[in-house]
Amino acid sequence: MNEVTQLIEQNNELRKQLNDENMVYYEDLLVYFRLKGWLIEDRLIEETLLMILQDILTAQQENETAEDYFGRSPKEHADALLNALPKASIKQISSFIGLTFGILTFFSFIGQFTTGINRFSLAILVSNAIISACGVAGLLWFIQTMIYTKVPKWLSTLLVAIGSACLFGGFLFSQFYLRTTWEIVLPHAFIITAFSIILVGLTIYLLIKLSKHEYQSILLGVSPFLYVNGLVSIYNQFAALSFSSFMNTTLQLLLILASAGVSYFLLFRFSK
Hints:
two-stranded antiparallel ribbon, mainly alpha, 2% strand
């Protein structure tokens, strides 16, 4: 277990000692801090969060609320702390961006095989990865902004719906207009073998991480989406090989949407 993991585990344990009022205050601060501080080294972020938590617990023992101790402007307090921390190096930032873009590109890649076809478009691959990256960045910005912005629930719901519609529209555009651009054909057997190896490798990786109690791994969050898309792709590739019937389109869509929902829940759950 590395140092950052230990800090997060310690934070999770100490947080259980907070009363309800302080828990709400601190968890809002925690999510804002982690989202706004993505350009800062993880260790520094977690050390600062742990320091804040310990201060709140000390104040709580003296019958003082977190709001009394830190004031009614937690956003300004968090911004001041973040501005005082050194930013991550160019290498670390590039690595983070590259990893994120790589994961999104891989999702786009496996998504093109879920219908049983054995070819993929490089144009769709790049387009969907860029659209997904913009969507993730927009979602993180929206969550970060809404934490300390008092807006009606209906308005925030409407904004999420509009953003989702734009994202889905971008995917449809690339699917219909870029399908035949720069296509590469792969044997069905190769796709089945490659996806099987990926899923087995993911399972082994998760078992190793879980055995070390590293529950905050990002792969734990994205794994349901990977598993469902991978298994649907393998099934439909077998169906294409044997000329048997393909999975019902409605069932396939429901499975993928359900896995995406579970993934979002896990990512949110283990981000705290």
